[in-house]
Amino acid sequence: MTATDSGKSGQRTISLAYSVADQSFDSTKSLGILNLSLQLGQALSRRAEVSRLDVFSNTSLHHWHSTLTGSAVSCFDSARASRLGRIAWDQTGAYAQAARSGVDWLVLPKGFASFMRRPPTRVATYVHDVMADYYRSHYRHSSSRLENWYFERSLRATLRYSSVIFTNSQFTREELLAKCERERRTPPPIVVAGIGFDARLSTEHATRDRIVVLASPWPHKRTDLAIEFMQRWQARTGADRLVDWVGRFPEGLPQPNITGWSYHTRLDEASYQRLLGRARVVVYVSEYEGFGMPPVEAVLHGACPVYSALPATRETMQASGAPFDNASFDSFEQAMTTAWTMETADIQQLAHGLLERHHWDRVAERVMCALVAATQ
User: Fold this and answer.
1) Whether the model pTM is above 0.85
2) Which terminus of the chain has a lower count of CB atoms within 10 Å, N or C?
3) Superfamily of segment(s) 4-196+359-374
4) Weakest-pLDDT range from 26-40, 234-248, 333-347, 355-369
């Protein structure tokens, strides 16, 4: 399998298989990874360097299929039907289909390479974080030993068999390099591709009277700290704000019964965007991220993000918006004051800067440059 020249331009082109068959809105643990997978696929389908794009998908993503340019879509619903179906797809299904397609590259946007067989073609993986290592150090008992074993084996296979690894940030790249060094492993080429965002419709005339707070059942998202800080902030300021909590709470952590607080266990993308269009502030509390998409999304919808100042979020946001220190309520309170009083013009200026840094066309260009360069 070799790359070919395309027409008179002499531009080098390659063929890709792109696997999202095991992803769906109903089953995903991470809407961020699902959205990234779909949007990266769209961006790659528009690239002139792609001579052929075979998409391995499922019928739940049928609306997305129509957004792909010149792609051949095949659906494999067994890959999303159950946990065993997803494992079978990870370990054998995606590779079998890639072998039948005869493409130059298999792109795995979830980042999980098979540890049961060698890839039949070059594999490019997109690694979002090194969360499994973080959980072994901080939340060892939050998931089963079997699940921990599976994800560790998958990450090791990714490092062993990937011809190229893409990451969302320099922080994640450094995390992977550190893991390779600890394990005395020679890393494959690791390229910071980033994450892209599209400009949103202007919502500057919307009534912005709400605070959106993101919740999650995962312990590293620190929903407990978000509740504590929000309760203390309202008590300190005496402000009765409309607060929308989006996401499931951790098991055993009750939803406070506070006037003005509403809870949305899960919203589809359109409903979430409408809610952001009415938000003045978006609060995002976490203690580990590979990138941190919600603060960027908040700005692009016209809201100011109040977010944990982690290495990845500082890199992503370039310290703009209203970052705070998880260890300091005073820092959180100052961030809330900054966010609530930020002018619309300042948020719009910030949005232009973020779109300049984080755009899908730029991400796809980085990906294709690396894939073409690595194709012999």
Assistant:
1) yes
2) C
3) Glycogen Phosphorylase B; (3.40.50.2000)
4) 26-40
